[in-house]
Amino acid sequence: METAELIWQNGEFVPWEEAQTHVLSHGLHYGSGVFEGIRCYETERGPAVFRHRDHLERLAKSAKLYYMELPYSVEQIAEATRELIRRNDLNSCYIRPLAYRGYGSLGLYATDAPIDLVIAAFPWGVYLGEEGQKHGIRAKVSSWRRIGPGGLIPHAKASGQYLNSILAKHESENAGYKEALLLDERGFVCEGSGENIFLVRDGEIVTPPHVASILDGINRKSVIQIARDLGYTVVERDVARAELYLAEEVFLTGTAAELVPVREIDDHLIGEPGEITRHVQAKFEDALCGRAEEYLEWLDFVEVGASTDEPSKVS
């Protein structure tokens, strides 16, 4: 992976190589952490973070669901992120804020363990590749089911929960596919290993609902609004596995992947990206890069040259 000069860690900007944590940190042993994936895009007005506050509010909600109190407010984290982008001299980047239980306790009821908070910002291309964005990817329905609300909290973006996605991702890659698609515990379509899923059926856009154990994706909500603004009908409902093979078009959305079409699922050919997918994808990319006036409110512009006087801390 590409690196940057600085990482923000517990209120200080430290050199990338020095951003370390103790080997007995609670989060390392039990996955007791929450995180976000956020992107900053280069626009005509300078770097802009896409739906910055929405992501950070989800971070705070995920932390609350796992009984973690963030040591900084959403606005403090947002300002630290903007300053980190400035100090790393980045025009576009991937941003990873992470809050986790640190060193101090190894018991499961670890209320005495400190909550550490770090923010990294660094260059990272689209997760599933530029070729996949243009021509679509091959995906496989995983034998692993998505975590259910009876055991964990699908709506939380929690570190330990991604072991579920890792199993599915390894299975799909080892079988020669680019991505995994997971069913929920009931057998309905849920999402990709790191993306939400949309299907086009009879001219309508269909996507699994919240009760299908999905993560409430920020890009998912953005694409739903864009599609409706473009005049398409978007329906949130349970999706049967067979519908994946019968769909006219399929695409995935996520911060890392952005919007990527799916051309084949389990050796069932969907085909090259369709008209609806391309239409929504083009408008979504305009929104990300500040070319769509109606969605500028989604962008948090980073004022280059507006660094704070404080050399190391954001309190």
Global outline: globular
Number of helices in the DSSP assignment = 8
Can you count the beta strands?
17
Question: How big a fraction of the residues is strand?
Answer: 25-35%
Gap from first CA to last CA:
29 Å
CATH architecture of the largest domain: Alpha-Beta Barrel
> The CATH topology of the largest domain is what?
D-amino Acid Aminotransferase, Chain A, domain 2
Q: Label the structural class.
A: alpha+beta
**How many structural domains in the coordinates?**
2
Oligomer status: single chain
Question: What is the CATH first-level class name of the largest domain?
Answer: Alpha Beta
CATH superfamily of the largest domain: D-amino Acid Aminotransferase, subunit A, domain 2
Helical coverage, percent range: 25-40%
Report on the architecture of this protein.
The longest helix has 14 residues, at 52-65. It contains eight helices and 17 strands. The protein is of the alpha+beta class and 315 residues long. The protein has two domains: 6-124, 2-Layer Sandwich (D-amino Acid Aminotransferase, Chain A, domain 1), CATH 3.30.470; 130-292, D-amino Acid Aminotransferase, Chain A, domain 2 (Alpha-Beta Barrel). The strands form two sheets. Strands 8, 9, 10, 11, 12, 13, 14, 15 and 16 form a nine-stranded mixed beta sheet that branches.
SSE inventory with pairings:
Blueprint: E1 6-9, E2 12-15, H1 26-30, E3 33-35, E4 38-43, E5 46-50, H2 52-65, H3 74-87, E6 93-101, E7 115-122, H4 130-135, E8 137-141, H5 163-174, E9 179-183, E10 189-192, E11 196-201, E12 204-207, H6 218-229, E13 234-236, H7 241-246, E14 249-254, E15 258-265, E16 268-269, H8 275-288, E17 299-301
Parallel strand pairs: 8-9, 8-15, 12-13
Antiparallel strand pairs: 1-2, 1-7, 3-6, 4-5, 4-6, 5-17, 6-7, 9-10, 11-12, 11-14, 14-15, 15-16
